[in-house]
Amino acid sequence: MQVIIGTKIGMTQIIGSDGIVTPVTILHADPSTVTQIKTVASDGYNAVQLGYGQGKNLSKSVSGHVKAAGVTPKVLREFRTKETPELKIGDKISVENFKLGDKVTVTGISKGKGFAGTVKRWNFNESRNTHGFKGNIRRVGSIGSMYPQKVFKGKRMPGRMGHDQVTVKNLVVAYIDTDRNLIGLKGAVPGPKKGIVTVEGEA
After folding, report:
1. In a shared domain, residues 19 and 92
2. pTM recorded for the entire structure
């Protein structure tokens, strides 16, 4: 099963034997532990739940849930499967399931940018700064309409920017180090350094 949970370390470059430089994002992915198996018969769909990391101060409900697996994970993630998983609780999944050239889908939380105006958040143009304009060239301007007399939902306005779940597809595995549990993906991966991401192989 080609799935793994990892921590983003950062970006670097790999120089191939042909001299081509490839930008890669390095993830540290310690083996994840199977904490729950879901099937169509019992839950209505097939899925595998994995635990990653070493958690602290787990709640009683979570502690009881993962007791059978014998771990105290920091993160729990669920991955759906087409067929009934041939795994059992307590099994380990590591980067050894991937090989160079595999295409994967990566999901993470993008960097939070805080409160941002429309120029930064939505790439709006600034107002002109001539002919007696008052000087606030980054304000939103009119947001209403003549009919109907309301502001439509989804109007692009100032607000929180970033810190959203982002999925990137068709990334290629360019580097694997099974001894240090490292995996390198060609290109950029969403999220800051030390951010948690999930990696799924594409069927």
Report:
1. yes
2. 0.85
Per the structure, the count of domains in the chain is 2
Distance CA 103, CA 170 (A): 5
Bridge partners, 197 (sequence order): 6, 108
Query: Are residues 108 and 21 both part of a single domain?
Result: yes
pLDDT at 7: 96
pLDDT of 203: 63
Q: Are 155 and 175 members of one domain?
A: no
Both 103 and 12 in a single domain? yes
Whether residues 105 and 126 share a domain: the answer is no
Which regions in the chain score pLDDT beneath 50?
Answer: none
Claim to verify: residue 53 and residue 127 sit in the same structural domain:
no
| φ and ψ of 8, to 5 deg | -75, 125
pLDDT of residue 49: 95
List the domain range (segments joined by +) for residue 139.
Answer: 115-162
Distance CA 191, CA 199 (A): 13
Based on the domain organization, do 87 and 21 belong to the same domain? yes
